[in-house]
Amino acid sequence: MDADFLLLHRMRAGDDQAIEAFVRKYYPGILRYCRLHLNDPLLAEDVTQETFAKFFQTLPRYQHCGKAANYLYVISGNLCRDHFRKPAELPLEDLPEQSMDPTASSDLRADVRLALDRLPAELREVTVLYFFQDLNQREIARILGIGLPLVKYRIKRAKQLLAESLGTSE
To answer: What is the reported pLDDT for 86?
Structure first.
């Protein structure tokens, strides 16, 4: 049995400490995901909170068959798309520091942001999940409801387009 299964069982039984532990475990990643999709940090916070509210509303009928994080990403992804029907911009100030060289110039960060913004929405979504959320390809396939070969193709294509846009070699 995995830790999420036990946590979910305790949450269904009304254990407030389990609910708090669950939120503490997943909140930072979901917030980071929302910030990468929305222009407004306050809106990202609201969408993150709404994600957890929706999760807890569906908890009684939720069927755990993997990672609860995947289901949270699906909910938050849908909520982000509901807020913006057009492709979302990635806020420069909210790009995760760990993905960049700490000595990188602000020009490089701006170039990366522009390159990400230029990606088609489906490639940007896979790029954010893979490179910024550190999800594996199988998890991404489950979250997006697409096949693993398509995820692999989109990651490869995104790398190519980013390399071209940034003027680097893969």
So the answer is: 46
* Per-residue pLDDT tens over the stretch 17-28: 999 999 999 999
Q: Which amino acid is at 29?
A: G
Closest Cα to residue 29, out of 135, 101, 116, 138?
135
Residue 155 contacts residue 130 (beta carbons within 8 Å):
yes
Domains of the chain (ranges plus CATH)? 3-83 (1.10.1740.10), 99-166 (1.10.10.10)
pTM given for the model: 0.60
Q: How far apart, in whole angstroms, are the C-alpha atoms of residue 116 and residue 140?
A: 18
Contact predicate 138/130, CB 8 Å? no
- DSSP secondary structure letter of residue 87: P
Q: What distance in Å separates the CA atoms of residue 70 and residue 157, rounded to the nearest whole number?
A: 23
pLDDT at 170: 55
Element (H, E) at 38: none
77 token code pair: 């992804």
Largest CA-CA distance found in the chain, in angstroms, rounded:
54
